[in-house]
Fold this protein.
Amino acid sequence: MALKGLTGLVRIDGPIGQIDSSLGWAGPSLTVMNRTLVICKPDAVERGLVGEIIGRFERRGLAVTAAALRLLDSDTLARHYEEHVGKGFYNDLVAFMSRSPVMVLVVAGPEDTFAVVRSMMGTTNPREAAPGTIRGDFGLMMTENLVHGSDSNESAEREISIFFPSM
Ligand code: RTP
Ligand code: MG
């Protein structure tokens, strides 16, 4: 089975190093790439926009290196959004984020991937987000803003360890 020529990789679990080199994998060296956590939020899954969102990242040249469709519980959300626990919008945020499944992704690129992803997402309030961004093209509501992206390299590693502890 020859995989030479492929330039991306989607896998569910397990470190990259477990891929059998005898398969002839010739894609990017993902182990040295910088990565971030992306969540396609419940509104994105409900509206069938996951493919559109992933496609934008892929066309930009980023690689999806893990993907999982998950229904999030309040404990997981409290870990993920720890900086927002207790804020006025927090209960609405948890109700929204746990109402139906999300698609959790690890997205990899050469450097500061979190910043590339955040610029493609647009500002938090979709009404103010620039056209051409995910939120600016598909969103109108503050809470239901389609996508999450880590806000720093440190946040990315912390969040990846919550959703993909083996990575
Ligand atoms: P995210 O963490 O989801 O990528 O979004 P963000 O960095 O752009 O915004 P953040 O300040 O971290 O807020 C997290 C999510 O909480 C909801 N929110 N609602 N009503 C409000 O004032 C308010 N503020 C934030 C949004 O869903 C936001 O994405
Ligand atoms: Mg945030």
Observations:
- Residues 120 and 133 are 5 Å apart (CA to CA).
- The chain has one domain: 24-163.
- Residues 50-60 form the longest helix (11 residues).
- Helices lie at 42-46, 50-60, 74-80, 90-97, 113-121, 134-138, 153-163.
